[in-house]
Structure formats: structure tokens, C-alpha cells
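User: Please predict the structure of the protein below. I'd like the answer in C-alpha cell form so I can feed it into my own downstream comparison script.

Assistant: Understood. Taking the following sequence of 227 residues as input:
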Amino acid sequence: MASHSASHPHDPVQRAFGGGFGAFLAAAMRSPRDVGTLLPSGPALARRLAAVVPDASEAGRPQVVVELGAGTGAVTATIARAVDHDAVVIAVEKDPGLADRLRSRGLGVRVVTADAVTLSNILADNGVDRADVIISVLPWTLFDPQQQREFLAVFAAALATDGVFTAAAYSLSYWMPAAHRFRHELGRVFGEVLPTRTLWRHLPPAMTYVCRRPGAAGKGLTADPSR
């Protein structure tokens, strides 16, 4: 799947976030619980999230990569550069303004304006039944327990048996009850849950969870991301 270069403004902050910082901030003010932060994901976090994308599709079958909570494309652009040329990349964004901004960037991905909980329908509408990679930039610590369980059940069901789910998380909230609950739910849904080291220079400091074997009962986290 070919991606296209987007023009970038001269301001370094705008350039780092694909020129969409104003749109992102406006969406955060409109729906703070949906966006979850006042800053888009930075380049280092984007690279960390996209690192799970396979180098190439299997013979005769294009890989399917889904990004949830795509915003203005801070992570999407990195994914588009990482995927094979024939991959199917679906960027899901609930906020219509952010989704329109992402479409205007011409990254060569399929942008869908929808709630991530409808992922099974989104896949069907795009002619696929499973995702090989699901990348989440959703604000998990702002979800109540039922929402966390519902989202993870939907995502695990949509993931190929040998697929990978990765989620961004902010390290400063690591000890919050909602963050602890999210880690527990990941271990309940996936057989393997690997937290990565904290990116302390990211604003705010962030890390990721890399999860495999959907549907298998996990045994907890296998590393401490605070080190």
C-alpha cells in the first residue's frame, strides 16, 4: 500500500504532529474523555506503536492493520511508512473533525469515522474479517470497567489468532486504579502481555503494551515498564 507525503508547516510543534495540532486541541476541548490528552502522540511513541507491524504480508494475503483513535494521524503516518505496499490500513477516528483532517493528509489509508467498539462492522465494511495488527491510542484510564472489558472483548475477537494488539499508555498514570484495572483486563484477555519501557522524553511520558494470543488466559505482565 503506497503512502503519500503530506506538506508540513514550518512551526516545529505543528510539523511534529502533522500540522494538525489546532484540530487536535479543538477535539480535546470538545470531547476530553474521548481524546484523553491535550497533546497528540509524539514521533517516538508513534515509532514504538508501529514497531509491531510485520515487515511483509503473507504470500497471497495482504496484512490488515487497524489503528484505533487515529486523531490527526500522528501515529498513522508512521504506520503508513512501515507497512507493505499491498497492506490494508484502516484508521478509525470517532471525532468527525479529526477524521476529516486525517483524510486531508493523503496518507493512503482508509479513514473511518466511527466508534472503535463497532470494529467488527468496520472490518466487514472494508471486506476483511480479521486484523493482523490492532494499534490503540485510546484513553484507557478514562474508561470505566465495563467499557474496558467491552472494548477489549471486541478487539480480541477481531484479531487474527497470530495477530498482535498494542496500546499506548501514559506512565504518570501507571498506579491509578483505572490503569491497574486495564493491565488486569489485558492479562485476562491475552495469553501474552509485554509492557515496554517508558519513553520519558515523550510529553507526557508514555509506554506501550504488546499483547498476543487473544482468548488465552494470561499470567500477568512479563516486565516492569518503569525501569
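That's the full C-alpha cell string. The longest helix spans residues 145-158.
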